[in-house]
Amino acid sequence: MTTIEISTIADIDSAAAKLADALEASGATVVAFDGEMGAGKTTLISALCRKMGVADDMAASPTFAIINEYSGSMPRPIYHFDLYRIENIEEALDLGLDDYFYSGSPCFIEWAERIEPLLPDDTLHVAIKVNADGSRTLTMP
User: Fold this and answer.
1) In the beta sheet, which residues pair with residue 86?
2) Which residues make Cβ contacts (< 8 Å) with residue 1, sequence separation at least 6?
């Protein structure tokens, strides 16, 4: 199991770099970010996207759009999903999520537990735990 500590927001870019290295080593393209509301999923994904060459002001929460597409330094787009408003699997299927997941492009998903049966078997799960002192601990298999 890999663990990454984020003591303060100033550590987010370092944590994103470590996470990017872990993603590359795993070969995963679909990443499910698990954590309570306010845990920092969007902030972490934004930092990870910056690490992958997305402009600073481009990566933001797709809460209302559900899916954002970013161009980075990679040859493929990066997809960022916020599935908080998804109510059922059928709604997710109507969005064509499975097409994104098998496209070979990086797919970063917030609230992935809402569509767990649709996730590819090799999805990398990143758990974000908020500690009592406000720091964060990231864990992944």
Assistant:
1) none
2) 139, 140, 141
Strands 136-140 and 67-70, how do they pair?
A: unpaired
For 55-72, give one letter per residue: b (16+ CB within 10 A) or e. Answer: eeebbebbeeebbbebeb
Residue keyed to tokens 């996470």: 19
Give tens-digit pLDDT for 51-68. Answer: 988 876 555 555 556 888
How high does pLDDT run on average in the chain?
A: 89
Q: Give pTM, 2 decimals.
A: 0.89
Cα–Cα distance between 97 and 119 in angstroms, integer?
Answer: 9
* Bridging pattern class, strands 124-130 and 30-34: parallel
57 touches 22 (CB < 8 A):
no
State whether residue 133 is helix, strand or coil. Answer: coil
